[in-house]
Amino acid sequence: MLGEFLLCDDKLSQDKGPGAGALSRGIQTGKCIPYKLQPPKKTCEVSAWCPTEATEEPPQPALLNSAENFTVLIKNNIDFPRHNYTTRNILPDVNITCTYHKTQNPQCPIFRLGDIFQETGYNFSEVAIKGGIMAIEINWDCNLDSWFHHCRPKYSFRRLDDKTTNESLYPGYNFRYAKYYKENNVEKRTLIKVFGVRFDILVFGSGGKFDIIALIVYIGSTLSYFGLATVFIDFLINTCSNTSCQSYCKCCECCAVNEYYYKKKCESIVEPKSTLKYVSFVDEFHIRMVEEQLLGRSLQNVKGKEIPKPLMDFTDLSRLPLSLQDAPSIPGQPEEIQLLSEEATPRSSSSPSWCQCGNCLPSQLPRSHQCLEELCCRKKPGVCITTSEPFKQLILSRRALQFLLLYQEPLLKLDADATNNQLRHCAYRCYATWRFGSKDLADFAILPSCCRWRIRKEFPKSEGQYSGFKSPY
Ligand code: GDP
Ligand code: ZN
Ligand code: ZN
After folding, report:
1. Confidence of residue 117 (pLDDT cuts 50, 70, 90)
2. Is the preceding omega at residue 61 within 30 degrees of 0, hence cis?
3. Which residue in 45, 79, 206, 237 has the most C-beta neighbors within 10 A?
4. How far is CA 27 from CA 3, 8, 186, 189, in A?
5. Closest C-alpha to ligand 1, atom 14
6. Is the C-beta atom of 434 inside 6 A of ligand 1?
7. Could you tell me if 466 and 456 are in contact, meaning their C-beta atoms sit under 8 angstroms apart?
């Protein structure tokens, strides 16, 4: 489409008012001139090309319709500098009369323009009217290993301009350009609007060779992702147990599973404190944790905080030879000491008011410390733990305790004087480990009075007072 425009500096470029559309744009001369006589109206004078561009539809059918049958030969050389490899798309044995076809001739570098449009589902003669942009993509995916060598291009096509845009957004591919010249000393221009089809050739690709180090790095980085799996699972389980599960189903199975998972994964550790004491009653399943500051009355009556009893670890116990039973007492041996010290042991008949089993005895400690030893093996009245079989077999068995002492120190000399003290202390420890499960708790466990005195009766001290519980910290 052609149009001639003259530069007129004394005429109005168009007959609309100022600022009315694209055609009013130009350099303002600063003059105010009339542009309508009836009724009289004035406007600013603008210096611009005239006449203004005529808006005409593009010719149909398109002028370049016959270009549909044109062919184009594409030459493409590629280089992978890291592998020092160069190649091109035209092989030495290529038939130069061929035409590219997606399935029958995919390696032919000669393309018929109409075929390119057909591949993408468009019609060349339709696109040619308003123009369009077509991408010819050449993809090189090369395996450069000598035993698996493959490096041939793959051609594909894609329309780049947006055919869905509406008329006002200028669809297709078209633009204007002007040729400027002077005629009789008057500046003139020829404005040309062109519609056409543009082909963009896009080349991309990758070339690789086997590399053992790259493989190891790849496997390593892949494995490291597995570490994220546990974090992800933890997050899912915790999220479920904390929010959705608890709010939607109070007693659902998944909550129990989550709780179990949490217990198995996280061990709750109680910080050791010198003021902390643990108490266990034979008629209660849990353990009670007591802060010393709360004491002032009998330990028996302090409520404390309930904590779950750790599961029993039988591994140490299983090391005890089953044959360990107390040998029949030999006259003149430990029994003698026992009889001697019988008097030092308070009578069981004088069981104090806080005792529920009938076997506890008042503390020997100074008054201020007595409340610490005022503890029974039971919370409610009933049978005493000292009458139980494990108590006799484990805590009161001289041979079992001797074996445990030797187990810790194989060459320990059990001399007559010190033996009872050692056995007594070992019996305390045995009882605490048995009833409190974990060593952390056992160190701060307080023995019930009945057990303490039953042990002392079995392994008595020959002289002086018993010193009682001492905090390990
Ligand atoms: P001693 O032998 O004259 O010192 O007096 P005891 O027979 O009372 O034993 C004192 C030792 O046993 C100390 O190491 C105490 O920590 C320990 N012991 C005494 N009573 C308890 C108790 O109730 N719990 C714990 N865990 N240890 C105790
Ligand atoms: Zn008691
Ligand atoms: Zn008791």
Report:
1. very high
2. yes
3. 45
4. 21, 12, 18, 17
5. 470
6. no
7. yes
- Which residues neighbour 163 within 8 Å (Cβ) at sequence distance 6 or greater? 122, 127, 132, 171, 172
Ligand 1 within 6 A of 436 CB? no
Atom of ligand 1 nearest to the CA of 456: 7
Angle at 282 between CA 379 and CA 382, to 5 degrees: 60
Distance CA 201, CA 134 (A): 9
> Residues with Cβ < 8 Å from 282, sequence gap 6 or more?
377, 378, 382, 385, 388
Which atom of ligand 1 is found nearest the CA of 464?
Answer: 3
| Cβ of 372 less than 6 Å from ligand 1 | no
* Ligand 3 center to 448 CA (angstroms): 7
pTM for this prediction:
0.48
Find the 448 Cα to ligand 2 centroid distance in Å.
Answer: 7
3 pLDDT above the threshold of 50: no
Q: Is the pLDDT of residue 238 over 90?
A: no
Higher pLDDT, 213 or 323: 213
What is the token pair recorded at 210?
A: 């086997």
β-strand partners of 36: 41
- C-alpha distance from residue 445 to each of 267, 291, 299, 302, 349 (Å): 20, 12, 12, 15, 26
Of all residues in the chain, the percent with pLDDT exceeding 70 is: 79
User: What values do phi and psi take at 377, rounded to 5?
Assistant: -80, -10
